[in-house]
Write a structure and sequence with these properties.
Strand content: under 5%
Number of strands: 0
Distance between the termini: 31 Å
Largest sheet: none
Helix content: 40-55%
CATH superfamily of the largest domain: Ankyrin repeat-containing domain
CATH topology of the largest domain: Serine Threonine Protein Phosphatase 5, Tetratricopeptide repeat
CATH architecture of the largest domain: Alpha Horseshoe
Number of helices: 14
């Protein structure tokens, strides 16, 4: 595995609850993992209930429900006062969790419940859009753009969604489609990385001919 491939895996890494953690859960976390919306409504209706309790990885019950695709539980938690924009230990919100998983149904629920596509997430100060772009999740990118995700946010590596689709992508059909979605949405195609390399420079350097062609056709320099 080359350095960029290893970096791509690291950037995509998330930590869903393990089977052992799920087995140990109690209260809201257990109900969220099981998708028990009725139990969550009961728990959240109790006087003095603590909202957004955290597990050992600082996951709230809402994070657990998102990781496990428990949509009814997600809705019950937010209806009961859970914060839809909460971040866990690695600074992921439920939108970014769904985006990385290429999980469109959970992403739709997360957005419906008020988790913002504009949130700055992860240790890289990125966005769900950047994460989805580097993984080549074109339909996720489309949904995030419709939800108002910032097209040209620069993370702490100095990369935009356009750059990550090129630098961390494989140049294949999925990443090309992702790049084209970003182009059509009006992303800035000339924002350089920290070495002053433009997206076109980077596509050429990596031998991504179709990406370079798409960038040139869109007016990239």
């Amino acid at each position: 595995m080359n350095l960029l491939a290893a970096l791509a895996l690291l950037l995509a890494a998330q930590t869903p609850p393990s089977p052992a953690e799920i087995k140990s859960y109690t209260g809201q976390h257990r109900a969220a993992a099981r998708g028990d919306a009725a139990e969550l409504k009961t728990l959240l209706g109790r006087k003095g209930v603590k909202l957004d309790p955290r597990d050992g990885f600082r996951r709230t019950p809402l994070h657990v429900a998102a990781y496990l695709q428990q949509h009814d539980a997600m809705r019950a938690l937010v209806a009961g006062g859970a914060d839809p924009n909460a971040l866990e230990a690695e600074r992921y919100d439920i939108v970014t969790i769904a985006a990385v998983a290429n999980d469109l149904p959970t992403l739709a629920v997360a957005l419906e419940l008020g988790c913002s596509a504009k949130n700055i997430t992860s240790r890289y100060d990125g966005t769900a859009l950047i994460a989805a772009a580097h993984l080549g999740h074109a339909n996720v990118v489309r949904m995030l753009i419709r939800a108002g995700a910032p097209l040209d946010h620069v993370n702490n590596l100095g990369w935009t969604a356009v750059i990550e689709a090129i630098v961390l992508g494989d140049g294949g059909a999925a990443h090309l489609e992702t790049l084209q979605v970003l182009i059509e949405a009006g992303a800035n195609l000339n924002l350089p990385d920290r070495d002053r390399k433009t997206p076109l420079d980077l596509a050429i350097a990596r031998g991504h001919k179709n990406m370079a062609q798409a960038l040139r056709a869109a007016g990239a320099k």
